[in-house]
Amino acid sequence: MSDQQKNPSFDAEQILNNEAENIQPENENVESILEPEAEVFSSEFDEQLSLALEEAAKYKEAALRAQADSQNIRRRADLDVEKAHKFGLEKFAKEIVLVADNLERALASTEKTEGEDLMREGVELTLKGLLEALARFEVHIVDPHGEPFNPELHQAMTMVPNPDLEPNTVMDVIQKGYTLHGRLLRPAMVVVSSAA
């Protein structure tokens, strides 16, 4: 019997050793081949990652802008609703102040006499009630007699020299003005003093 037949494990060990020697150089070749591919893969991955991060930043900015726009639209809508509530009566109030003007003219045209005292008193009470009702709805009188002229609230009809008053002082009110919630409804028509 030969040595190989007597000791079969000897042959297996030798074969495994030979195979291991043959495999190692191949593994070294594989590693040397994979290293450049790994670098290429890594650089491609970094490039794709940076592109994805840039795109995510763009979407985040767009989302923040959309959120800010929606908040601005909501605020504007709230302000519009608030203005509609405050100034919805503007046209009606302009018509009602004409009634107040007519009642004031009626009082100015009547003289106090015994027979007309009751009628005059009735007109005065009607005017008082009307002005109180207007005040409840934030319609207030602009009666600037003796005040400095304010072009935002007054409309100068004429200027009259007056040495007793400072220039640009309201001497007389031809027609009272009105405001609605602080906004001018109608300017007061006034006579303004000028330097002598």
TrEMBL record:
The keyword Lipoprotein does not apply. PROSITE patterns: GRPE (PS01071). It is found in: Cytoplasm. It holds the Pfam family GrpE. InterPro entries: GrpE, GrpE_CC, GrpE_head. Belongs to the GrpE family. Participates actively in the response to hyperosmotic and heat shock by preventing the aggregation of stress-denatured proteins, in association with DnaK and GrpE. It is the nucleotide exchange factor for DnaK and may function as a thermosensor. Unfolded proteins bind initially to DnaJ; upon interaction with the DnaJ-bound protein, DnaK hydrolyzes its bound ATP, resulting in the formation of a stable complex. GrpE releases ADP from DnaK; ATP binding to DnaK triggers the release of the substrate protein, thus completing the reaction cycle. Homodimer. This is Protein GrpE. The gene is grpE.
